[in-house]
Design goal:
Its main location: membrane. Helices cover 64% and strands 0% of the residues. The chain is an all-alpha fold and 542 residues long.
């Protein structure tokens, strides 16, 4: 554990401190090597990006409130859809889960910190210039990239200089992800408390261990795809340019070989959070722990052989379509195992519905709907009709918003008292939950019908018959956005300021795990002496 020494002349002031002197003010954050501080910075960064991406989404929904062009031209509209996707995926969802990993993994395995504390600091601060570059691309000549978040060739070869800024930003974010993943893997494999075998580890640590391996496997693939795009743009290569013998469809293969595991990178840590919360509020041990670990690993392995289900309309041979169709359907099996185990955990449990449990059950319900629409889209003949319509938009928002985002909210309500030392207001938490759930469904449920009726995505204008559902969706989107502002102002800010009832060491009756063995708020240094666990791995041996 490294600690930053105080400036010269102040050494004596801190000599009597309990442990190493930790810096105060801006130095504490700039030079942060403590996993809790870095976790906090990741979470605040990701919430900031969630707000930025949310504003872009609301501009999209404002434009689509009625037919005709209201606020933006089609070019700017495509910039908005592209940047909304990139910012939400790489700026909001992924960093939020890394923030949870930083905060919770050392606490859950009884480690004093992450394995590489300075690399941890570096991997966070890399994200700031990348985010600034992404957001500032709107102000570059020709505006932001407008090729979709997938950055398909040949559109990327026709974009202005902002495309290069976008590529650079993606490279930096990828490097940050890889460093974070190495840190998580080394921490989990080498720094567990004595007595905590891998199969006694909390599921959140398992899901992140598997996610970290996925990240290391696929981030270089994305880097390769966008580097080839860069050389096509500036150095006369023709990887994706048919005029020089290249192939734009090859870009899609490379991108989705990254892109499909990426969607599991964004959901597996969510499974880990939900697997911690449901047993706590059902007051039962998680049903089928071992099968949950194997299911997570199966999902990760299968995610590498399904990428071309995004490409059924590219003229793939029927044999290829069949392979990718059946491989995709196969992923529903381990996912179904997880859903079954969560429901079995709740079955005949002594359940109470505090806010974390509400979000976990909401996650279960709405994520399952997203899973079913995914199963429908896995069928090649159906997908050929629905590809690039609003049905696909509805599907992945059910999985990503109601999946990843709800799990993140659940985690904030569940572990927030441990982080801040104060309890949130249960009434406000419930308002946030019900408001989010209702507005989310008002926003995205009508999109299934729009897609089935044939409305294509990424269009700034549409025929009159799609008006009603678009109006409903736009109203819902503004409601959903306001609920997240409410969450920040009335849940996050009071907790960060320490306003509210003091949190006990273990605020949830049924909660288990090492993180509840330290005081609330969690002290700056924890587990400097590794805890020893007894045979059941739930209690510390005195």
């Amino acid at each position: 554990m490294s600690a930053v020494l105080p400036p010269h002349g102040h050494a004596g002031d801190h000599a009597h401190d309990e442990h190493h002197a930790h810096p105060h003010g801006w130095r504490r954050w700039l030079y942060a090597t403590n996993h809790k501080d870095i976790g906090t910075m990741y979470l605040l960064f990701s919430f900031t990006m969630l707000m930025v991406g949310g504003v872009l989404a609301l501009l999209i929904r404002a434009e689509l409130f009625q037919p005709g062009l209201q606020f933006v031209n089609p070019q700017l509209f495509n910039q908005l859809t592209t940047m909304h996707g990139l910012i939400m995926v790489f700026g909001a969802i992924m960093p939020a889960f890394v923030g949870f990993a930083n905060w919770m993994i050392p606490l859950q395995i009884g480690a004093s910190d992450m394995a590489f504390a300075r690399m941890n600091n570096f991997s966070f601060w890399l994200m700031i210039p990348a985010a600034v570059m992404l957001v500032s691309s709107f102000f570059m000549p020709g505006g932001a990239p407008a090729a979709g978040w997938t950055l398909y060739a040949p559109l990327t070869l026709q974009m202005g200089p902002s495309m290069d800024a976008g590529i650079f930003a993606m490279h930096i974010l990828g490097a940050s992800s890889i460093m974070g993943s190495i840190n998580i893997i080394v921490t989990i494999l080498n720094m567990r408390a004595p007595g905590m075998t891998l199969m006694k580890m909390p599921l959140f640590c398992w899901t992140w261990l598997i996610t970290a391996y996925l990240l290391i496997a696929v981030m270089p693939v994305l880097a390769g795809a966008i580097t080839m795009t860069l050389t096509d743009r500036h150095f006369g290569t023709s990887f994706f340019n048919p005029a020089g013998g290249g192939d734009p469809v090859m870009y899609q293969h490379i991108f989705w070989f990254f892109g499909h595991p990426e969607v599991y990178i964004m959901i597996l840590p969510a499974f880990g959070i939900v697997s911690a919360i449901i047993p706590a509020f059902a007051r039962k041990r998680l049903f089928g722990y071992t099968s949950m670990v194997y299911a997570t690993a199966s999902i990760a392995i299968l995610s590498f052989i399904v990428w071309a289900h995004h490409m059924f309309t590219t003229g793939m041979p029927v044999t290829g379509q069949l392979f990718f169709m059946y491989a995709t359907m196969l992923i529903a099996v381990p996912t179904g195992v997880k859903i079954f185990n969560w429901i079995a955990t709740m079955w005949r449990g002594s359940m109470t519905f505090e806010t974390p449990m509400l979000f976990a059950v909401g996650f279960l319900f709405v994520f399952t709907m997203g899973g079913f629409t995914g199963l429908i889209l896995s069928m090649a003949p159906v997908d050929i009709q629905l590809q690039d319509t609003y049905y696909v938009v509805a599907h992945f928002h059910y999985v990503l918003v109601a999946g990843s985002l709800y799990a993140l909210f659940a985690g904030v309500y569940y572990w927030g008292p441990k982080w801040t030392g104060v309890m949130y207001s249960e009434t406000r938490g419930k308002i946030h939950f019900w408001g989010s759930l209702i507005f989310f469904n008002v926003t995205f449920f009508p999109m299934h019908f729009l897609g089935l009726a044939g409305m294509p995505r990424r269009y700034a204008d549409y025929p009159m018959q799609f008006t009603d559902f678009n109006m409903i969706a736009s109203v819902g989107a503004f409601g959903f956005g306001l609920m997240q502002v409410y969450f920040f102002l009335f849940i996050v800010v009071p907790m960060m300021r320490g306003v509210g009832q003091k949190a006990p060491q273990k605020p949830w009756e049924g909660a288990e795990g090492l993180e509840w063995e330290v005081p609330s708020p969690a002290p700056f240094h924890t587990f400097e002496e590794p805890p020893k666990l007894n045979a059941s791995a739930t209690k510390i041996v005195a």
